[in-house]
Amino acid sequence: MSVIDSDADLDPDPQPINDEAPATQRPTSRIGNPDLSAELATERTHLLESRAALARMRERAEALFATGETVSGDPFAAESLGRQLARRIAELTDDPSAPLFFGRLDFVGPAAERFHIGRRHVVDDLGEPMVLDWRAPLSRAFYRASVRDPQGVAVRRRFGWTSVGTPASSTAAQPVADLSGFEDEHLDRGEELGTNSRILTTEIERPRVGPMRDIVATIQPEQDELVRADLGATICVQGAPGTGKTAVGLHRAAYLLYAYRERLRRSGVLIVGPNRAFLHYIAAVLPALGEIDVTQTTVDDLLRVPVGRPERQAAAPILHDVRMAEVLRRALNANIRRPLHPIEISDGSYRWRISVDALRRVVDDVRRENPAYATGRDRVRARTVALLQRQAEARRAESPSDAWLRRMGRAKPVVEFLDYVWPAVTAEGLVGGLLGDPEALARAADGVLDADEQATIGWAKPPRSVRTIKWTSAEAVLVDEAAGLIERPASFGHVVLDEAQDLSPMQARAIARRSEHSAITVLGDLAQGTTPWSARQWRDTLTHLGKPDGEIVPLTLGFRVPAEVLALANRLLPALDVDAPAARSLRHDGALVIDEASDVCTAAVAQVRDALRFEGSIGVIAADAAVPGLAAAFAAAGIDAGDAEADGRVSLLPATIAKGLEYDHVIVIEPAEIVAAEPRGLHRLYVVLTRAVSRLAIVHTKPLPAAIA
Prior knowledge:
With 709 residues, the protein is an alpha/beta fold. The protein contains 28 helices and 23 strands. The strands form five sheets. Strands 1-7-6-2-3-5-4 form a seven-stranded mixed sheet, sandwiched between helices. Helix 7 (245-259) packs across helix 8 (261-267), helix 18 packs across helix 19 and helix 18 (427-436) crosses helix 21.
């Protein structure tokens, strides 16, 4: 097993991988080995040549973009080609601060093929690959090959990287990632490091400031199986803190866009996160992997109407209940009526008549078909006109023109009939009419909601008009449900849904409408559910998402959160009442400090200053009401603390938006206040404690919650 590291001295007496490892499994080379030093120099040369080749690929795309108008046959083709080339140019953007490749595979056989594995595909001027995209079929072996199943691999090499100053030959404005060493696993000799790889663990534990990084160099075999699952497979990942579930979801999106590019380019990929701070945190991952055509949004931003006022706390749990879907369906269908009179209409030459019995059959037939409401209205119109058409054909012995059919469809008697039996309805009008009219609500909710529930969700003072309504988040979900009943929205090609444990049944239905013909990757942790309607078992959520048979896959081995932190957080699990296994961690390098202080602001300042001695990001998390006081204390102490969307070293954030984020150093202020702030406060505390990926400090003056005292 060859190991070379140009930045650190290796152990002069290296140990075997395990007590039973034969001598051939021991690292056999050190920095002084001239052969390996020459090998590292060769790899650095390949890196420089690969970056130059990528730059030439981008230059060729830019040249084609500049001449696109002259080679296109028409303006539409020119515009389409321009968009495609602009996308290609963006995909070929090189980030000098990120390694262009991170591994190499040497295959067995007479040809002894060798491929470098990286974030994107790079070819030389003859089209020969210099770097294989990590998503390519051949690259799968980098993540899954083992001594037991080598998959044709003789040697797997992992590269170590370090940031160096900007070279004079580079136009980059930031440090450049340079090779610092490599590790070889000779699978053909029975050598395998697995998670004992020093390069692997160094990359996983690397301190970070700013947005989330990709994990393409450190994907584990069980994660890779999820990433490369078929496009049609709905997968629910129950991921404990630090297991990489968010990264798995993002890399799955990147893989699917690579493997099914044309199909997904038409229908798109949707990524749904819990809040905008989370979306900011993950925003750089997919572009770093060369994927830019992905829609990233929150549930609220996905809905038909904007959220314009605070939630009504008592009403929200009822409005989010799946029973509201039935109330809305009843309210909408109550608009459909059977006709009372025949239609008589003149086209200027003849007078036509449709009997009331024939019209009733039209309405009854369409209603039995149960189409979307707007589609049903169109069908009633079309079939009514078809009855007129048959009469005209029988009398004239020829089919009437398309213009005649359109005129009949717009004729006053037809429109009046249509408006009576199947009137046009808007989603806003339907929901506003229900919540603003107790009698209408009582009719639609009879036997579904009791009188107290109806009184709770109704508006005490109805708005003057639908246009003046400012919707709460829960009400906006109802409007989206109503809109889906009226007209079904387009379906995305794939949906990645993160922090899904917090979805209400009605929010899940909003996602289901946008994935009716596609699969979903569901990510979450039941133990981190903090809303009143949070799921306690995944099968319920999958049913509301329209994917009741989706596969549930647990991830319990943590790579980011240290064992000391997880051990503390796991003490909360018995009180959380969820079906979630305890997490365990590979890392034992964390630090846990519990600081019982006389003044939390003074102690918080001291903890931040202590954390600043180390590398990495710092997150100070407190109950929402405590944040302004802490911000003032930090400002007075000269500490520049940004919010969750800032990219500075220190972030101060309320506990309610910490979900999905992570920091190298986390300072939790007054856990008792976090728990007391909401009904599922212990779940919130579990979330907050597990944001730490290196060090956790707890500052308190009040007694700690019993589970962690």
